[in-house]
Specification:
Helix 1 packs antiparallel against helix 4 (about 120-135), helix 4 packs across helix 5 (about 160-180) and helix 5 packs across helix 7 (about 205-224). This protein is globular. It is α/β, with parallel strands linked by helices. The chain contains 7 helices and 7 strands; from the N terminus they run E-H-H-H-E-E-E-E-H-E-E-H-H-H. Strands 1, 2, 3, 4, 5, 6 and 7 form a 7-stranded mixed beta sheet that branches. Bound molecules: iron/sulfur cluster.
């Protein structure tokens, strides 16, 4: 059974966000090991590198943990939290980073324009589930911080979001286990996708619909 964030059995937590953006993009990354950068991904990576180094910051009684490694056996994923804010609270949990009890609040950093994307919420929720599994306690909300706009949007971790996150983790695990590449569906997202050349979303292959049918059947059977 996986016991740390470095366990090779665990899949990258970031793949949940990739799957939420587009299952085929996640499959290209996970199965074909394809990764291409465009202006959007390059800007995001550069901004993350500039902002983030692993560190612990203390302000008064509260702590901010940057680039915190996390994992969840329940979700089968591991990754890094951009920032976890730990505020002193009598009904909080103990942490190895300070005395007292703390309430945890994950914050995911994003570059570019402010937007409300379901995959961001799933990524944040997965981080919260990891933190709950590692440290105990219940996390009721987190936030997406848009670096350029200096805006922070709170995301309630509702039962619906938790279910969507669990379903996405199962779907990613299935995709990897069955080695199935979902068919491309051209949409507005393709215009910003860095994998356009590898994906060729406007090409129609006779085998594509067949592959999609298999993938849909597998998902229906395993998520029920
Ligand atoms: S180009 Fe479109 S269909 Fe292809 S991986 Fe990107 S978002 Fe998905």
């Amino acid at each position: 059974m996986p016991s740390s964030s470095a366990d090779p059995e665990l899949l990258p937590l970031s793949w949940l966000a990739q799957y939420g953006y587009c299952p085929r993009r996640c499959a290209l990354l996970a199965l074909e090991r394809v990764w291409s950068e465009n202006e959007f991904t390059a800007a995001g990576r550069a901004q993350h590198q500039k902002v983030h180094t692993a560190r612990v910051e203390r302000r008064g009684e509260n702590i901010s943990l940057f680039e915190l490694p996390v994992f969840s056996r329940a979700l089968g994923v591991s990754g890094l939290c951009d920032c976890v804010e730990a505020a002193q609270s009598p009904d909080g949990i103990h942490l190895p980073y300070g005395d007292g009890r703390y309430r945890l609040y994950p914050v995911e950093y994003k570059h570019g324009i402010v937007r409300d994307e379901a995959e961001y919420h799933i990524q944040l929720c997965a981080q919260a589930i990891c933190l709950e599994e590692q440290f105990g306690g219940a996390i009721s909300a987190g936030a997406i911080f848009f670096i350029d706009a200096h805006r922070r949007d709170e995301v309630p971790l509702t039962p619906e979001l938790r279910k969507a996150t669990t379903d996405t983790a199962k779907a990613v695990a299935l995709l990897v286990a069955r080695q199935l590449l979902p068919q491309a569906k051209y949409s507005a997202k393709c215009r910003k996708c860095s994998m356009q050349d590898e994906c060729a979303p406007k090409l129609r292959h006779s085998s594509a619909a067949y592959c999609q049918t298999i993938w849909n059947t597998v998902l229906e059977e395993d998520l029920l």
